Amino acid sequence: MTTRAELATMIDHTLLKPEATAEQVAELAREAGELGTFSICVSPSQLDVDLPEGVKLATVCGFPSGAHAAAVKAAEAADSVAAGVDEVDMVINLGLAKVGDWDGVQAEIAAVREACPSNVVLKVIIESAALTDDEIVAACKASEAAGADFVKTSTGFHPAGGASVEAVRLMADTVGGRLGVKASGGIRDTATALAMVQAGATRLGLSGSGAVLDGLSD
């Protein structure tokens, strides 16, 4: 049985609302320290935050549409790296994915990977709810080939929806433990979080981390 503390160490405590303020980001960081989460994940313009000891700093890139030029994504990632982030979650170009241009998808992930030193974790958001099973597999393979460290289900902003157990299982099967799998988008209760972990998620993106963790005991 997963304990509260164990699950907390898998959580990116997240605040990516466009209207989020610096004060709210500071509160997020404080909560992360109290909850014992792995990191906070905030927008690139809000990286100037005091972090509790042991809490990592993550941000997003090409968020939330993924429709930015590869050079713009790479520049954004490089700027975040210079600001001291530990992890970057980038969004793929879904337009390329939907026409099967996997070389193009891989090339833009590789461009962001080049902008991130090896000690910076790169997660690739594939927006799984907007993809077919075959496209999910291909996106995961492109991410791995480009040097990503994780594949991630969702931004949480796409109308197609967020994470699903089925998508997480397929992603985990495809990367075979060589990459991490982050489930994110619409995970609001303990049962759903645990189901994602059981399906193969090794990281969770949560905005309501406290509510999820309250369903577990140490």
UniProtKB/TrEMBL annotation:
Q: Which Pfam families match?
A: DeoC
| Compartments in which it is found | Cytoplasm
According to UniProt, the reaction catalysed is: 2-deoxy-D-ribose 5-phosphate = D-glyceraldehyde 3-phosphate + acetaldehyde
UniProt entry keywords in alphabetical sequence: Cytoplasm, Lyase, Schiff base
Q: Name the InterPro entries on file.
A: Aldolase_TIM, DeoC, DeoC/FbaB/LacD_aldolase, DeoC_typeI
Q: Where is the signal peptide?
A: none
- Enzyme's top EC category: lyase
Top-level lineage group: Bacteria
- Family that this chain belongs to: Belongs to the DeoC/FbaB aldolase family. DeoC type 1 subfamily.
Q: Any idea what this protein is called? A: Deoxyribose-phosphate aldolase
Q: Which organism is it from?
A: Kocuria carniphila
Q: What is the lineage of its organism?
A: Bacteria, Bacillati, Actinomycetota, Actinomycetes, Micrococcales
Gene field: deoC
